[in-house]
Specification:
This protein has helices at residues 74-85, 101-115, 150-159, 175-184, 198-206, 233-239, 256-266, 315-324, 330-337, 339-344; strands at residues 3-12, 15-24, 29-33, 43-46, 51-54, 56-61, 63-64, 67-68, 89-96, 125-127, 163-168, 188-191, 209-212, 223-225, 228-230, 244-248, 271-274, 293-296, 299-302, 308-310, 362-365, 371-376, 379-381. By secondary structure, the protein is α/β, with parallel strands linked by helices. The chain has two domains: 3-52 and 366-381, Urease, subunit C, domain 1 (Roll); 56-351, Metal-dependent hydrolases (TIM Barrel). The strands form five sheets. Strands 1, 2, 3, 4, 5, 21, 22 and 23 form an eight-stranded mixed beta sheet that branches. Helix 5 packs across helix 6 and helix 8 packs antiparallel against helix 9 (330-337).
């Protein structure tokens, strides 16, 4: 199907192009130009000056539409992905919280099958488990949290090739060796759920860890031990110039002022916006996959309110928060939702920006930054 969107404010890799048209089919963006005259299009849409932006790439998302990726079924994956597509996510890395190895392998099997289908929005699997500091577990199931065991992670990797990112607390025994091993295989190694201080973060960076999971959440900041102050994980990550970060930009997990500080010091090129969304996101259901979790104040919490447990944010909400509350330009907010994650994950040759020849993952926003239309690989997503 050949589609032409006319009269839009199109965000390209060179910046905004006002009153531009964009022509695409289900394989690629064919042309971005002024006043494209094509009478053979199957579908013509007048954007009426609205924003045309690249689709969001969510690096950290546990589910949506009433389903969690830990369910390990094709139906759960499809329903969750469809829910996020309607809100502007067009490429996704399903994320698994702490679970049994059998559960992880089952979800990996489904991921591998679906990501190999034509025009799949699944780019790979993200494991947020099980190598986390139990003292910083938050909502993670402590029953399945362990130190890295070489025989275990090598066995997992021998059974699947869909894992593109794997998180760990670098202070754990065996974590640095784990980071070296997975990064040597092209898997992003990320620090997560950690109490690591500067020397450990520095060692982790040298061992291949180049990413920080939900920056500011489940990690320490400057603190006192008796009369002395000590740097936390957060300050240490700021000092690692090559360390990329992701932030749950819902305005709750990270307050707007701190979102702006991350943007100021880490910059667009090293900051990704992620939802960390739970299964109840974009759903009428209030049933959660994890019975220990409740929804309150627009966020998921442990039922005893001792910690946040995940978000119910969607990609459009992240962009709105960055622009309207953190006072970041729309261009930069969009880049952090699309271009930066694409570059970090090595898929920028096909996704992350609107350019001729790239995948037609396209979102239309109105001037209130509400999603009005979405195309995922050139296929229109029903709102």
């Amino acid at each position: 199907m050949l589609t032409l969107i006319t009269n839009g404010q199109v965000l390209t890799s060179q910046g905004w192009r006002k009153n531009f048209d964009i022509l695409f089919d289900q394989d690629r963006i064919i042309l971005i130009s002024e006043h494209i005259d094509r009478s053979d299009c199957d579908q013509k849409i007048d954007a009426e000056g609205k924003y045309i932006i690249p689709g969001g790439i969510d690096l950290h998302v546990h589910g949506g539409g009433g389903h969690d990726f830990l369910e390990g079924t094709e139906e759960a994956f499809s329903k969750a992905i469809e829910a996020h597509q309607r809100h502007g996510t067009t490429a996704i890395y399903p994320t698994l919280a702490a679970a049994s190895i059998d559960t992880i392998l089952q979800a990996a099997k489904v991921t591998e099958k679906l990501m190999n289908e034509p025009h799949s929005p699944i780019m790979g699997l993200h494991l947020e488990c099980p190598y986390l500091n139990p003292e910083m577990a938050g909502a993670q199931n402590k029953e399945h949290i362990t130190n890295p065991r070489k025989e275990e992670y090598m066995e997992i990797l021998s059974q699947t090739n869909c894992i593109k990112r794997w998180d760990a607390a670098p202070e754990l025994e065996g974590a640095l060796e784990f980071g070296r091993y997975i990064s040597s295989r092209g898997i992003i190694a990320a620090v997560a759920h950690t109490k690591a201080r500067y020397e450990t973060i520095k060692a982790a960076s040298e061992a291949g860890y180049n990413f920080a999971t939900h920056f500011y959440n489940a990690m320490t900041s400057v603190h006192k031990c008796r009369e002395y102050k000590h740097e936390g994980t957060i300050e240490s990550i700021y000092l690692m110039d090559d360390m990329n970060v992701e932030v749950i930009a819902d305005g709750i997990h990270v307050p707007p002022a701190i979102l702006r500080m991350i943007y100021k010091f880490k910059g667009v090129e090293r900051t990704c916006l992620v939802t960390d969304a739970m299964g109840c996101t974009a759903s009428d259901s209030t049933t959660l996959y994890d019975p220990r979790v409740i929804i309150e104040d627009g966020v998921c919490k442990l039922s005893d309110r001792s910690a946040l447990a995940g978000s119910i944010a969607t990609m459009d909400r992240l962009i709105q928060t960055m622009v309207l509350e953190a006072e970041v330009s729309l261009e930069d907010a969009v880049r952090m939702s699309s271009e930066t994650p694409a570059k970090i994950m090595g898929i920028y040759h096909k996704k992350g920006s609107l350019e001729e020849g790239k995948d037609p993952d396209i979102v239309m926003l109105n001037h209130d930054l509400q999603v009005e239309d979405v195309w995922c690989m050139g296929r229109r997503v029903r709102r």
